[in-house]
Every structure is written in C-alpha cells, then in structure tokens.
Amino acid sequence: MGLDFLADGGADFEHAISVTGFGKFHYMLLAICGLIYMDTAIGVTIISFVLPAAQCDLQMDSTAKGWLTASPMLGMVIGSYIWGCLADTKGRKVVLIATLLMDGVVGVISSFVQHYWAFLIFRFFNGFAVTGAMGICFPYLGEFQPTKYREKILCWMEMFWTIGVIVLPLIAWLIVPLDFTYATDSFYFKSWNLFVALCALPSLTLSLWLFAFPESPKFLLECGENDKALEVFKWIYSQNTGNDPETYPVKSLQEKPNPKDKSTRSLRLHKRKDLKVLCSEVWELTKSLCKPPYLRNTALACAIQFGLTSSYYTLMVWFPELFTRFEEFEIEHPGESTSVCIVSLPDNNTDLMDYGCGTTIGSGVYLHTVYIGLACIPGSIILPLFIHKVGAKVFLIVSLMISGAVTIGFYYVIDSNQNLILSCIFEALTSLGISLVYCVIVDMFPTNLRVMAAALSLTMGRLGALVGNLIFGYLIDLACVVPVAIFALFLFMCGLLSILLPRTGKDTLD
C-alpha cells in the first residue's frame, strides 16, 4: 500500500485518503451530496410553478410575482455568507444538516400560509436555508476525494441538478392540476399548497440520512484534530474494502504547521462572549479572502457568479410563466406569430384586478419544462467524461459565450417552439456553468477558506439573482428588450472574465 509514514512521521491527506481506496463510501457520498444538490435545484426553482398556480389566491400581478421570485434570492444573499462562515468554523456536516432541516421545516409551514406577504416571508427563509446546502455540498464532497478523482466526481453533480430540473415539473404536473381543495371560512389548502409541502419533504429526509456520514477529514486536519481525522479515514477504509478498520495501514497523520483554533468548533452561539470570538474569527477569514494572494481569485469568482447567476435564475424561474403566456396567446390567436415582448404585454381588455383567476397551467408548460431538463443530460454526461482532457476553464468559457448569444436570440423568437429550443440550449449551458464555477472554487482556495470563498461568491450570485428577478418582474410588461440585453451582456462579460481563472483539477487540495 506504499509508505505508511512520511519522513516527518505521518501521512499527509493525499496519501491517507488514497489508502482508503475508492469504492462504496465514495459512491454513497456522491449519492447523498448529489441528492442534496438535486433538492436545492427543486428548492430554487419551485417558485416558477407557484407563480401561475397561486396568482389568483395570492392576488399577484407581474410586479408582485417579481417580488416573490426575488424573496428567496434575498434570503440567499444573506444566508450564503452566514452558512459559509459557520461551515468554515463549526464544520461542514453539522451546518449542512442544519440548513436541510431548516429548509424542510420552513417549506412545510409555508404551504399552509394564506396571504401573499406571509408566503413571501417564508420563501425568504427557504432561500436563506437552501443556499447553505448548495454552497457546502460541493466542498464537503470534494474534501473526501483523492486528486485523481476529485474533479470528475464533482462534475457528476451536474447530473443531479439536471434530474432535479426534470423531476420538479413532473411533480408539479402530477399535483398542481388536481381538483383538490380543502376550505373553511378562514383557511384553504389547494393542490399548489400540497405541491409546496411535498417539495419540502426531501430536505427533511436527507438531513436525517446525513447523520450516518462523517465530518470532512480535510476540515478535521485543518483544525488540528488528527485523531478524529484518522478515525474517519479508518471508517472510510472499512466501508470501501470490507476490512477491519484497525487494519488501515496509516497509523498517524502529519501535524498541520498552523492548525486552525479548534476551540471555535465548541463555541456556543447563544453566549455573547462565544459569539464575539466567532465573529472575530469570521472577520479574519474574510480579510484573508480580500487580500493577496486570494484577492484576485475572490474577485473573479464573485464577478462570474453575479453575472451568471443573475441570468440563469431569473430566466429559469420565469420560463414557465413565459410558456404559459405563449400558450394563452396561441390559443387566442391561432396561426399568428408573436414574440416574447408581445406576449409579455398586458391585455388592455382584461380586468387587471382579477389576477389571472380562472387561468390554469396548460400541460404543454409542464412538458416544455421537462424538455428543458432533458436537454441538460448530454452536457451532464459529457462534462465528467472529458473534464480532464479539456479542462473546466475551457468548458466554462464556451458555455458562457454561447449562453450570451442564445439570450440575445430570445428577442427574435416568433413562436413557442423557437422559445422552447432556445430555452433548452440556455438551460443546458448555464446550468453547466453554475456547476463548473463550484468545481473551480473547490480548487482555487485552501481548506480554511474554501466554504467561505464559495459562500462569498454565492452571496454575490444571489444578489445578482435578486436584482435580476426584480428587473425582469418590473420590465417584462414595460420594456422586455432591456432585461434581455442586460442578461446577454452579463453572460458575455462572465465568459471573458473566465479566461483569467487559474488552471484547476491537477493539484492536491491545499
């Protein structure tokens, strides 16, 4: 099995994780992290089917819909950095469990609320929680991988996101059209409420399953907790090989030259003194990200996340709404061609106060959204197979530049079929870009800053999504060419900035 000890008396992380083998444990870890990522895909885009389904009950016009789609994004802006700070000080696993539990509980409660503003507040907290799971699952998965498998394993996460994009409209198609209503004088519970509740259950299930997995050994080593890290390596070795943990050939691990203060992991956040210590630690880590040698990478990651995420999440959330408008136009004006901007114009003959009451989501809308998810499958398979040969950076640049061109194309579509084709290409490429940015960040920063860096870039990304949804909701009925042009410009700029990213995927994690 190679040397059990290095010259300084202990094995380093790369040797220790390689000796555990690659097998059952790693596949199970990929499964749970992938399902968490799939769950976040559902959590982020669920609102896209709530908009047309609940517009009458919650009395929403386009501006109100814009605020509702922006609400979880605002939660993500605030939550990303808070969860990242906690994950880099308290541990990956415990914070991941907390985010999933919160997302599940808040999601179930939100399904019972009766008023627009109450629902908007609960979706804020859903966004606050789900962004933590999204930001932590990639570093958590990556920190268990040997170098030669890490990039490929991380790239397989894109497939789980794709499955989430496919599964969500299928669940919506099954539940939302049901003629199901429970109502009293002061309470109602309809099919869209049931849909919201069911989509919250996977978070609760995954949080419980995660208790069976260990803390990241890379994080434990960073904290100087070598004995605990060694126990994790032994357990992984036993899971992969079926051998007794005590037969694991590595008997000691290298001491970290400057280990993180592990006392921060035992801080009690309800105590003012402990909270002050934690805030001080977080401030020091934040300052490290904003100084050389990490400042350049931090700025690039944040800028790319802002432009890419604002475009992706805004258009992804509004696709079902646009599909619904196209379908309504083509029913009312058979044989006529139209465009995104024309179907976005409100009908002057319509009573604006009816909030779309009586409108139902056509089966074509669900089917079109499934097609969008299916369009992502080829890229999800090609990416992990060719990532080592082509490189994450090249994939990212190409996907962003083509996405920008496709976004311009939305302005020129004349029917729902052209809109669908461009939507499929847009989703396939931009979702690849989102996953690639996460993969690159895992390699760009050291362990003690990794989740914090991911969280900071996620914060900027969610800020972009927040701004994007507000812009789209406000301008879609007034001057829709403006948001289309803005998002196309963002994607082109992100593609150019990606050229400046460092090469990743070849070196051992720092």
UniProtKB/TrEMBL annotation:
State the InterPro entries in the record: MFS_dom, MFS_sugar_transport-like, MFS_trans_sf
Give the UniProt subcellular location, in the record's own words.
Answer: Membrane
Gene Ontology cellular-component terms for this entry are: membrane
Q: Which Gene3D superfamilies match?
A: MFS general substrate transporter like domains
User: Positions of the region Disordered?
Assistant: 246-266
What stretches pass through the bilayer? 27-54, 66-87, 94-113, 119-141, 153-176, 192-212, 298-319, 365-387, 394-414, 420-441, 453-476, 482-501
Source species, domain of life: Eukaryota
Query: Which UniProt keywords are present, listed alphabetically?
Result: Membrane, Transmembrane, Transmembrane helix, Transport
Where is coiled-coil annotated? none
Q: Which residues form the Major facilitator superfamily (MFS) profile domain?
A: 29-506
Q: How does it sit in the membrane?
A: Multi-pass membrane protein
Basic and acidic residues: which segments have biased composition?
A: 253-264
**Gene Ontology terms for molecular function:** transmembrane transporter activity
Query: Which PANTHER family does the protein's record reference?
Result: SYNAPTIC VESICLE 2-RELATED PROTEIN-LIKE PROTEIN, SYNAPTIC VESICLE GLYCOPROTEIN 2
The record's family statement is: Belongs to the major facilitator superfamily.
This one is known as: Major facilitator superfamily (MFS) profile domain-containing protein
What is the organism of origin for this protein? Microctonus hyperodae (Parasitoid wasp)
Q: What is the lineage of its organism?
A: Eukaryota, Metazoa, Ecdysozoa, Arthropoda, Hexapoda
